[in-house]
Design brief:
Number of helices: 9
Strand content: 35-45%
Number of domains: 1
Strand order of the largest sheet: 1-4-6-8-10-12-14-16-18
Radius of gyration: 21 Å
């Protein structure tokens, strides 16, 4: 396998130089090593990283941001001057490269509870976005992607003590390639809810990194996806519990049909000292039609005692008993299949953008 490399030489930005003299002197080499490490190759085992890395340095535009006129919300487009919260050189070197290549970032600071949601719309590859909620602030974030070409987005979220964020994300655009990186750090007793709804495209990759960095923090992720017609979806989710008393729950349902390919890797990492952690992960997949490919790998890394954890994954087809029950009562076989697949996805379609997701995913399921 050929080594991966950056598309153009990278000049280390000031904020990265401030972290470490070693990092400042050899950022290209550090990224090269991270891109070619065994851990990175494992994360990209079923999807080629080269096409995404090849355009990571391309010019990005500001996303459309609406709803920021409310009290307590401050938006700036500015050069980055300090590392993002949850910064990790090894976890996502592509995201680090995108930060370094970007001349500016969009910073949204929220310092009090908000009455209306913020809408974040990506019509192309967009500048990195940093959302920071101060202690006790609350926010609803509605994120969508609408484009048919190559797209890349990186979103970094930092939740202060007792802050709460409800995040709905829809991605149904039939792009040639679409890569999304999401990094969320939760401080003490912060709460984060992600409703993720997604359809496959030629190459769609979603990287999610949740960092439970405060005692008693809580995160919940539900995701519904449909992949068909030779499309692909690769989801890589890492949840790190670094402090005691944290809770996380992940429920991911995907339907793969008509030659589609779906990959899911979910890793729960419980650090030493994070006692009292409750972490749950469930990934269920339905294969329909011919030549569906499904790869799923839930993982647990536990380095402390007194925790409650479970993880599981299933790959199957529609219940023949349920199909027989419906058809024996006069429901046409194709309608019965559509009803059952709709019910499977509906379990993970929630939140303020659920109606659009139902139309895009359940409607597609009914017509397949």
């Amino acid at each position: 396998m050929a080594d991966l490399s950056l598309p153009i030489p990278l000049t280390s930005p000031t904020w990265l130089q401030a972290m470490s003299a070693d990092t400042a002197d050899s950022v290209d080499e550090i990224l090269r090593q991270a891109l070619n490490s065994s851990a990175h190759r494992e994360r990209w085992k079923y999807t080629k990283a080269a096409p995404i890395l090849a355009v990571v340095a391309e010019t990005a535009q500001a996303p459309i941001v609406e709803g920021t006129e409310q009290p307590g919300i401050h938006v700036n487009q500015t050069p980055l001057t300090e590392p993002m919260a949850g910064f990790d050189l090894q976890q996502a070197p592509e995201a680090l490269a995108r930060l370094c290549y970007a001349k500016q970032v969009i910073i949204i600071d929220v310092d009090q509870p908000t009455a209306q949601p913020i809408r974040l719309q990506h019509g192309q590859s967009t500048l990195p976005v940093l959302i920071r909620l101060k202690p006790n602030a609350t926010l609803t974030l509605l994120e969508s992607s609408e484009n048919q070409s190559q797209m890349q987005q990186t979103l970094w979220i930092d939740l202060g003590q007792n802050a709460r964020l409800e995040h709905s994300r829809n991605a149904f655009n039939a792009s040639e390639s679409h890569w999304q990186y999401l990094n969320v750090r939760l401080q003490q007793h912060a709460q984060y809810q992600l409703y993720n709804h997604v359809a496959g495209c030629t190459l769609r990759r979603q990287d999610v990194h949740l960092i439970m960095d405060g005692q008693g923090s809580e995160a919940s992720l539900s995701s519904a996806g449909r992949v068909g017609q030779q499309a692909a979806l690769d989801q890589q989710i890492t949840v790190e519990h670094r402090q005691p008393g944290g809770r996380s729950n992940q429920t991911i349902h995907n339907i793969v049909a008509d030659g589609g390919k779906c990959t899911f890797n979910g890793r729960i990492h419980i650090h030493e000292g994070a006692s009292g952690t409750d972490a749950q992960l469930s990934n269920k997949n339905l294969g329909m039609g011919d030549h569906a490919t499904i790869n799923t790998k839930p993982e647990l890394e536990i380095y402390t005692d007194d925790v409650s954890c479970s993880h599981g994954a299933t790959v199957g087809t529609l219940s023949q008993e349920a199909l027989f029950y419906l058809t024996s009562r006069g429901v046409a076989p194709e309608v019965a299949e559509a009803l059952l697949s709709q019910g499977f996805l509906r379990q993970c379609i929630n939140g303020p953008m659920a109606e659009a997701a139902l139309n895009a995913l359940v409607g597609a399921s009914a017509s397949s």
